[in-house]
Structures are given as structure tokens and as C-alpha cells.
Batch of 2 targets.
Target 1
Amino acid sequence: MRKQYRLTMALHIEKTTKSKISEVDFNNLTFGKIFTDHMFECDYENGAWQTPQIVPYHPLILDPSAKVFHYGQAIFEGMKAYKDDNDAIWLFRPDQNQERINKSAERLDMPAFPKDLFFEGLNELLKLDKDWVKKGQDNALYIRPFIIATELCVSASTSNKYKFMIICSPVQSYYTGEVKVVFADKYSRSANGGVGAAKAAGNYAGSFYPTKLANQQGFQQVVWTDSCTHEFLEEAGVMNVFFRVNDTLLTAPVSERILDGVTRKSIIQFCEDKGIKVEVRPVKVTEIVEAARKGELLEMFGAGTAAVVSVIGAFSNKGENFELPKVENSFATIIKKGITDIQRKKTEDKFGWTYRVK
Ligand SMILES: *Cc1c(COP(=O)(O)O)cnc(C)c1O
């Protein structure tokens, strides 16, 4: 890890004079539309991170020449906070997000954000906005740390100024129903040597058009394949992907093209502990199609912070459609319950994954 330069200045906190919380209908939330009263901000200039601040949530004023608008030097993270029955607030493996944003930063040639500042900002922000984290199985606070290039100059080169921010949005867990997917055979979200392993904003921008084409044909998501041959299954939309063939779960190893998801690695560990066999290896399109034909493909699901597990009910490959069977005691159900119970402190956390907000 590169040196993380910072000026040693204390966190500056400015509280809002008027909370918006009473205007929010917490039983009727659209994902990611409403934000809490405060945000965390820290600017990078002259080679160092400047005074970190928590301030009332506010729009940014940025000159149109800011580099983020032209060259897409932008990265982000996504994590969730939960409130238990005793009003304690918990995060799930936030160390993983903290490390990952700095890996993404390195790939996009942005400065690493110091670990102590990340946790200090996160803790203080969640303490200030604690009333926005609601108790109950369906409620959580989605947390979005991100970094953008703010140098004012349209020359195509790396920025010398950045802004790190954390914003938070109250969310309800959503059940999208079973989704239908199409295996990619033309477009790709990432390629060898590219930025697919980074949580870079541009990866998402590039995936919207192929996803729209899939939507127009009645599929909610694209299952991305390797960009060279389209023979290996890699990710489902913006989630990692798992396949259950008979009683074995298959998922691709992380690579330069595949994002190292916190949910994915937690599922692998959870399953190994539960005695569910997981094989981490390249997964061929042909073997999944073959398994589906023989009735041995029992489940397919995406894995990510937003939904934990998102069940895939049908897929299409080269114009041929396949339906997955309805299985009793599905791995998807066992995993989703197992992981969310740990996240929400309903069960013992033998893995040491939960982090209590101080
Ligand atoms: C964020 C993301 C995931 C899921 O990662 P989690 O850490 O589990 O939320 C998977 N794939 C892509 C492309 C992502 O951007």
C-alpha cells in the first residue's frame, strides 16, 4: 500500500440546524433517493488530505472543467449499517470496503484515503445520523463512500485534486422477485488489463447500454462473460454470481475482470463452514447449459451488498431459454438468512465480521 499523506488536523463537525428526518416516510423508500442530514467530506490538494469535515448534506458547486466530468476519474464503495434491538449500530466487514477503495484508487491513479480517517469519518457520521438507521428486519442505511477528481483543467492527465465523500441513504430491503438473465455474447463490462476489478464509476456507465438491450428483450440483467471468448461466466449485472449444480456451488475466481465482492467471499466462507461444497474455478457457459439440460442446474444467484442474494429464475443463451426448477431449502435461502442474521446480530458472529459503531 502506498503512503497515505494527510495533514494532522482534527475532524471539523458542523451540525445541521434543521433535520429533514420528520419529512421522510420510512415505509415508502425508493432505493438511494433520500439522504441523511449530514455528509463527510475531505479534499486532497498539495499532495495531502486536508481537514476532514462533517457538514450538513449539501449540493456541490464544481467548475465545469473539473476532471471528473471529462475523464471519469471516480471510484466508490457500497456498504450497509443495521440497528439491532438494543439500538446499537453495526457494519458488516467495513475493513474490506476500506481496503478496496484504496485498491480502486491505486488502479485509477488516485491517492489512497487514510484508514484512520475513513473509520473516524464513518463512525462520527453514523453517530450524528443514528436516528436515520431504523430497527427491524427490513431496514438499513446504505453508505456510499466515493472519490472524484476535482482539478479544474481539461488536459487528459491525472488530477492533482480530489474530494472524498461519504453520503448515507435509508433503505428497505427489497425483494425483486426472481430475475431473468441473458448470457453476454457480444458486449463486456471489463477486459484483461482493464479496470473491472476496481469499483470504478465508468464500469457502470459502460454496462448500461447492453443492460438496456437485455431489458428490451425481457431480461433484467446480463450475466457477463470473459471478454476474449465469451465462454466463461463471470458476474451477474453488478453482482458476483453463483451456480448450484447438484449439491455443489460454483463461482469464478476473482481476476482483473471480476470485482472482489465482500458478499461473495463471505458466502464462500459461510458455505465452507456449513458443509456446502463450493468450487472456486472458471465456470464454462457450456457446462451450465449442459447441466440445465440434464436438470442438474438447481440454482443461480447474484451476490452483492444491496440484496445479499438475488435469485435468478431463468436464463437465455444464444437465443435458447432455460428455466430453473423450484427447489426446497434452496442454498440461496439458507445463505441469505445465514448472512443477514449475522449482519443484524440475530445470531452469533463466529467469523468476526460485524463491527460496532462507536
Ligand atoms: C460492488 C460490486 C459487486 C458486489 O460487491 P459487494 O462487496 O459484495 O457489495 C460485485 N460486482 C461488481 C461489478 C460490483 O461493482
Target 2
Amino acid sequence: MLEQLGISEEVNNYFIETEKVLKGKFDEIDQICEYNSMKVLHAFQHHQIAMNHFGSTTGYGYDDIGRDTLEQVFAKVLGAEDAIVRSQFISGSHALTVALFAFLRPGDKMLSITGLPYDTLHEVIGIKENKSSLKAFGVQYDQIELIDNDFDIDSITSYLQKNKVKLIEIQRSKGYSTRESLTIDKVANVIKKIREVDKEVIIMVDNCYCELIDKLEPTEVGADIIVGSLIKNLGGGIAPNGAYIAGRKDLVELAGERLTLPGEGREVGPTLGINKAIAQGLFLAPSVIASSLKTAIITSKVLEDLGYEVSPKWDSKRADIVQNIIFHNPNDLINYCQGIQFGSPIDSFVKPEPWDMPGYDDKVIMAAGTFTQGSSIELSCDGPIREPFIAYQQGGLTYEYGKLGVMRAITHLLGNKNA
Ligand SMILES: *Cc1c(COP(=O)(O)O)cnc(C)c1O
């Protein structure tokens, strides 16, 4: 079977040996998975989810009891007052955009305290010129860099004492940067410090890739609002598309009015038959996330042992499902991504090449042999073709499929090394 899957015996043996070392780490992940499964199960039971919630609406989507109740289930899982969970959000970036346009008004100021935000938000904010940006509507923007992979608390608090800020954005996952992702403890700490000097400012967290990694969500440690994608963690690989915004009720209402229209807000939005998939995706999410974490950890350990630079290391505390391999040359990055594609269930016969993607500044190579287009809770790997040539790998619907994909990628990488 290994030969048929294009996995070398040498690589397979590495994995067998490595799994023994990872036993304790995997047990920790299983414990968090069990805890989060309890959270999810309790939310389903508390809101009495039943078959009638899997019904469908078309057209305006009035009185969609499944949609409305599932939003309450998401809110409960996330420890939030309320949530809007819709397929009308095209992506995580769209939900972030809706949230920003919903909360900010001309003359207001937005402050990022995690440095430069995710690539797709540059034109949204106006960091990169766009006629439809927040900047074009008169919203000001400023940012404070992280120091040593943590918040610059002194600069943040003194900035807030000197300036009126309407909204603070915290991006937990690293995006296409080289910094570390931010654990819930670090987020909790900075929120506490912010509240000591500013009780009013809206604290919004880009929670993409970070849901259910730990036992707490940012909304449980004082964040006003969190945003994430359903083709990442909380969709569990089953949701066909969509995103969520969860947190304070008044803010969720504002987001609804911006997503649809003032006056109709959350009352409209047909679900077109996806309620069951949304529910089932959330139900599976804790264990799919655990599989993704295990896939990331074994990738990190094996590649480090083979002499590659990796981040995070296998035994460090993780904040998200993303694993970086820093290749320092374009060939290894491209070969590795191609290997992930060859190890996928869908389009395994396709060879991905770097290309210019809308919203991104550099050419990007993307391996995504996924059931859902662009889904990155499924095993996927991508990287901008720029120094130091970092692969961003994430996902794995099951640990077994995740591992098999990575074994194929490593076989391909080692077989195509530069002479
Ligand atoms: C994935 C991601 C997003 C949103 O990406 P979409 O592809 O638009 O869903 C935003 N921020 C971070 C940090 C991300 O990782």
C-alpha cells in the first residue's frame, strides 16, 4: 500500500518511531478535545436541537428556526452573548470586513495591536489604496508591533491614554508572517491591561484557525467580538462555506444590519439546505481540530529531525492549527506543497504552481486537494514565493489522512532535493 501511495519505506519508518515520542503530547490534545466535545454537546442539548432545525428556507429566509437556533448554539460554544453564522459570509475576510464596516464610523480610529493585519485586509483598511476601503470612508488606522512574539503592553496602554480609539484589532494566528501565533493566555493578559485604561474601546479578535485549540475562547476572557471562517476550524470540514461573528449582542446586531440591510438585519438570509451541514460540522469540529493538531505536531517533529527549520516546535504550546516549515529556498517549498497535493483525496493528479492570487501581494503556491474549495481545515499547504520561503501547512480531517498526506509530501521533498 505504501508504494501505491508514493510513500517511501524510510519515511514511513520515521513516522512510526516519531509517534512513540509524541504519545504524551497526543494525550494532552485528546483531553482538550474531550473537554471541547462536552462544550459542544452541552450546547446542542441546551438549545434542544431537533430534526426541524435541519429544515431549509429560500428567498428572503424569514423565520428560519434552524439558522436562528444554531446561531445560539455557536454562541454558547464560544462563550458569547450572541452570534451570527451565515453562508452569506463569503469567507473569513468578508466577515472581518462586515464587522469593521459595521462598528466603525467616519472619524473613528482603528488600532491593530498585532502589527500588520492579514493580507486580505490591507485593501479593506486602506493600507493598500482602494476606493472602497475604510480609509476612503474617513476611518483612521494605526498599528502597534508585537515585541518578542507578545503584545507591547506599555505602548498599547500609553497609546490609549493619548488617543481616542474606537476599535482594537487582535489577530491571533500569524497569517503569512514569521511571528508566533498568540495563545489565549497572552490574549487574556492584554485585554485585562487594555481594560485598565479604556473601558469603552471595542476589542475585536480575528480568531481564524484558533477556535477550540484550548479550553477558552477570547470571548470568555473579555473580548467584545470574535470572527472566524467555517472552512477552517468550526466548520469541521463539513460546512460548505460561511463564517461567524460572535460576541456582544449589540455588536452582533450591527454586523447583521451591515451584512444584509438596515432594518432587516438578521431576520433575513436563506439557508438553502445547509443547516444540517453547519450543525454537523460544529459537532465534529473538536475532533477534526485535534486531528489537525496531531498532523501539525508530527510534521514538525519529523521535519525537524530531518534537519529542516520548523515553527512551532513539536513540543511548544500551540495557539492555532498552522505549522510552518522554513525552507530557505523556493524549490523545497514548491516540492513540499506539490507533495501535499499528490497526497490528497481530490485532485491528487494535479501539480500546483505559484500564481498571482487576488488579495495577496506575492505569488502564492497552494496545495488544496480538498472536498470544499479553499478549505484549510482539510490538509492543505501554501506559501508566498518570497524569502525565507515558508510553507504554511494546516488541517487534516482525520489524523490518518493528515499523516498519509504529509508522508507523501516528505517522500516527494526528499526525492527532489537540489544536488
Ligand atoms: C484565513 C485567515 C483569515 C481569513 O481568510 P479567508 O480565506 O478570507 O477565510 C483572516 N485572518 C487570518 C489570520 C487567517 O488565517
